[in-house]
Design brief:
- Helices cover 55% and strands 8% of the residues.
- The chain has 9 helices and 4 strands.
- By secondary structure, it is α+β, with helices and mostly antiparallel strands.
- It starts with 6 loop residues before the first strand and ends with a helix.
- The protein has 2 domains: 73 residues, Glutaredoxin (3-Layer(aba) Sandwich); 133 residues, Up-down Bundle (Glutathione S-transferase Yfyf (Class Pi), Chain A, domain 2).
Length: 225
């Protein structure tokens, strides 16, 4: 069948884009081999699998590589349609809406994440946190519309938007300690805060989301040394 074949994921444990792919694989109940990449000393397999961008994640399915996290999540949902729940809605309008908000996450939350992580000056990092907070306020309304009063962006169960935004959840705690700004705050975005707690406690997130803030900070210290 179309979904047969070996699955191998090349990634980096701290990457929110790798985390979202792992969340998708877990939600679909798929078995896969995970290989941690040293992004400062990239393996030959990694370089040949993603020669254009040379970035994680890369999913290798039966020897064929697929790159870019949102593309990979789409691929997983299409190829392994019979495995687990569908991640994207069946309704074309709802599917388009989910894709729109997923693009918004990468544009606004993703760019803020890069600023908070890579900016040299603290005031730039704080500006990135401000951008992230503004984006999450907008996503609070998106959650209300997409969830229709249910527990997830996808309704009764996690779906595409849940894994796209879910990849960043652990980082919000990291940035709170790094910058001193609470990015995801129940006082500002109560629906998202409740969703984050619910999603983080799910089976698909176990052992994947960044829980140990100090471990991440030690990794970053070594990475930027």
């Amino acid at each position: 069948m179309a979904g047969d074949g070996e699955l191998k994921l090349l990634g980096l444990w701290t990457s929110p884009f790798v985390i979202r792919v792992r969340l998708a694989l877990n939600l679909k109940g798929l078995s896969y081999e995970y290989t941690e990449e040293d992004v400062k000393n990239k393996s030959p397999l990694f370089l040949t699998s993603n020669p254009v961008h040379k970035k994680v994640p890369v999913l290798i399915h039966d020897g064929k590589p697929v790159s870019e996290s949102q593309v990979i999540v789409h691929y997983i949902d299409e190829v392994f349609g019979a495995a687990g729940p569908s991640l994207l809605p069946a309704d074309p309008y709802e599917r388009a809406t989910a894709r729109f908000w997923a693009a918004y996450v990468d544009d606004k939350v993703g760019s803020a994440w890069r600023t908070m992580l890579f900016a040299n000056e603290m005031d730039e990092k704080v500006d990135g946190a401000t951008q992230a907070i503004a984006a999450l306020k907008t996503l609070e309304g998106a959650f209300q519309d997409c969830s229709k009063g249910k527990h997830y962006f996808g309704g009764d169960s996690p779906g595409y938007m849940d894994v796209v935004l879910g990849g960043f959840l652990g980082w919000f705690n990291v940035f709170e300690k790094m910058i001193g700004v609470k990015v995801l705050d129940a006082a500002r975005t109560p629906l998202l805060a409740a969703w984050a707690e619910r999603f983080s406690a799910g089976d698909a997130a176990e052992g994947i989301l960044l829980q140990d803030v100090d471990k991440v900070l030690e990794f970053l210290k070594a990475f930027f040394a």
